[in-house]
Amino acid sequence: MDKQFPFKSSIHKIQAPAKLNIRLKVIGRRPDGYHELVSIMVPVALFDTLELERLPKKQINLACQGLSVPDDGENLVYRAAQAFFARTGIGGGVSIKLTKNIPVAAGLGGGSSDAASTLTCLNELWSSPLDCEDLCELASGLGADIAFFLLAKPSIARGIGEVLEPIEKWPTFWYVIVTPPLQVSTAWAYANLKLELTKGEYNFILKRLKKEPIQVGHILENDLESVTAIHFPVIKSIKTLLLDAGAVGALMSGSGPSVFGVFESRENALRAKKSLAPHIVGDIFLALGLS
Ligand code: ATP
């Protein structure tokens, strides 16, 4: 028989943030083909929005608006909902409206964030049948970055991204994010990576994070940048533009192609965003880091 849960408000709205990889180092390759990494990830205030409504019947309806993404079983939102119902044994269903603002396949983790928000929201709508550990396990089974978005706090990520350690004192920076009109597959970037595995990476990060104040310029590094930047020289041009516009550092996020500049004040970030606009290198976003 289907499990019964007490009634809770049946509509829920949630914002799913994007992420930036402040550092991404590949430290190994597992027998199953996944790469082991050490990364610093931060959530930023660039959001997709999801609206979820409980349905009495066992069905999942998904409607997408905004940037184009699949609205069927290919969508991570759909797969997250399927996984939630399968795991909990709940007999009901859900109608989900996804408004997509985070550029797709752009290194900003939008799909993973949507999936995490779906899991969190469904769990709340049905009065928390899953605890944090269950949610984390479910998330990791769906995709490497999804567990990060359950907490959505600046974190060191290890393993394939599912071993997370929040960084309590990560400074609140402003980020100017530039997304050129290209889509980069994460699988393609890893397949083209020339493996020169980094050693002692975790200790390097711990040491850097102990410094007061944290010098972000010394931390920024992404092993996947060389792969994507060789194929898409615009990555390097955007970095140069951001640095010339006063960023304390600039880096490609994830497997790209989004590139971000780090700024210590909104004023400086806004000035840089304005100075980049005439160069028409892609979509430009100004986003506060979330903590
Ligand atoms: P990551 O770095 O985690 O791979 P990304 O930002 O590079 O993330 P996403 O925007 O999450 O990439 O999308 C990657 C792929 O997932 C795309 O090819 C897209 O079609 C598919 N996808 C499935 N569901 C979603 C979703 N809800 N939002 C965005 N993409 C989705």
Structural key phrases:
alpha+beta; binds adenosine-5'-triphosphate; globular; about 290 residues; 4-stranded antiparallel β-sheet; 2 domains; Ribosomal Protein S5, domain 2; Alpha-Beta Plaits; disordered N terminus
Q: Which structural category do the helix and sheet elements fall into? A: alpha+beta
Bound molecules: adenosine-5'-triphosphate
Question: Which blocks of ≥5 consecutive residues have pLDDT under 50?
Answer: 1-7
Secondary-structure element order, as H and E? EEEHEHHHEEEHHEHHEEHE
Main sheet makeup: 7 strands, mixed
Number of strands: 11
Q: What fraction of the residues are assigned to beta strands by DSSP? A: 25-35%
Provide a brief overview of the structure:
The chain is an alpha+beta fold and 291 residues long.
Walk me through the structure.
The chain is α+β, with helices and mostly antiparallel strands and 291 residues long. The chain is 31% helix and 30% strand. The chain folds into 2 domains: 155 residues, Ribosomal Protein S5, domain 2, CATH 3.30.230.10; 122 residues, Alpha-Beta Plaits (2-Layer Sandwich), CATH 3.30.70. It is built from 9 helices and 11 strands. Strands 1, 2, 3, 4, 5, 6 and 8 form a 7-stranded mixed sheet that branches. Strands 9-10-7-11 form a 4-stranded antiparallel sheet, covered by helices on one side. β9 and β10 form a beta hairpin. The radius of gyration is 19 Å and the shape is globular. 44% of the residues are buried. Adenosine-5'-triphosphate binds next to α1 and α2.
Question: What's the topology here?
Answer:
Elements: E1 11-29, E2 35-55, E3 60-66, H1 76-88, E4 93-100, H2 110-125, H3 132-142, H4 146-151, E5 155-158, E6 163-166, E7 174-179, H5 186-191, H6 201-210, E8 221-222, H7 225-231, H8 234-244, E9 249-252, E10 259-263, H9 266-276, E11 283-288
Parallel strand pairs: 1-8, 3-4
Antiparallel strand pairs: 1-2, 2-4, 2-5, 5-6, 7-10, 7-11, 9-10
Helix pairs in contact: 1-2
